Amino acid sequence: IKNVGVYTSGGDSPGMNAAIRAVVRTALYHNLEVTGIRRGYEGMITGDLFPMDRKSVANIIQRGGTILKTARSEQFKTAEGRKMAYDNLKKHKIDALVGIGGDGTFTGAKVFGKEYDIPVVGLPGTIDNDLIGTDFTIGYDTAINTVIDAVDKIRDTAESHDRLFIVEVMGRDSGLIALRTGIAVGAEAILIPETKTDLNALYHKLEQGRRDKSSKIVIVAEGEEAGGAFEIGRLIKDRFPNYDTRVSVLGHIQRGGRPSCQDRVLASRVGVAAIEGLLEGHRNEMVGIINGEVAFTPFENAIKHFIEINPNFLKIVDILSL
Ligand code: F6P
What we know:
Substrate binds at residues 126-128, 163, 170-172, 222, 246, 252-255. The active site is at residue 128. Mg(2+) binds at residue 103. ATP binds at residues 11, 72-73, 102-105. By secondary structure, the chain is of the alpha/beta class. Helix 5 (140-161) crosses helix 6 (176-184). Helix 1 (16-29) links the parallel strand 1 and strand 2 (33-37). The chain has eleven helices and eleven strands. Bound molecules: 6-O-phosphono-beta-D-fructofuranose. 6-O-phosphono-beta-D-fructofuranose binds at residues 11, 102, 126-128, 170-172, 222, 255.
């Protein structure tokens, strides 16, 4: 391997910059050249590539977003798009890739790595934490801390007005942001895509919950099956017209901001491991951390899997919200 291409793809996540920095500096440390690819697979197809050096990643470890920019490429889903990408990589003499992203990124990398003889290693960069092969993804810790900051503020005003708030957090396919933050903010209920939403159970909970509670918070993951926070809010308003109910959708603030210490360290560890893994012959795998140790997982095992929700987490909410 002589020249490694690095890209970020899919939804950005805090800590992606720390990961880029680790990849670039480790490659240089091992006397490899590094090429930055802008906007993920889009940039590969259009040829938006540039050489990177130590300075190009200076002063970015603390910054949210991604200096390489990101995109979700439709063209890369086609064989012609991938051929154009490969031709551009060849033209720039790139002979290995490090892709930072989530499910969509690794779906593309898996197909590309099978079609063309170019080793690809992935780093788990998504706020959703919905990949197999790592205990945590880069950005998840920052995002959940952003959520609890926001919901703590909502709790202040909810308490002052004796209100019920339905708060929607991100995760169209995954309830892992909702689950952890719901526990951390002392939510009265959590609704996630992985479990069937039992509206009667929710009504019962809101009715029977301690009566001297003046505020109530229900955390709803974006992909929850009954229709998300606005629909749940509408149903609750119908059912409990005497509750003062409000809906708040946190949205993309969850994707931005300075990465937490945990995300920076995770990004640095897997960034180093990705380059060293490529040099050792790893390909078509994601590198994560499991139980404190670096672990490589084939792309096909890392993605498109139903992530089991720990039932203890849901039980904790039931016990502690009474
Ligand atoms: O996958 C990351 C994520 O933030 C999900 O939690 C969310 O459902 C989705 O991306 C939102 O995507 P977009 O930025 O395209 O609105």
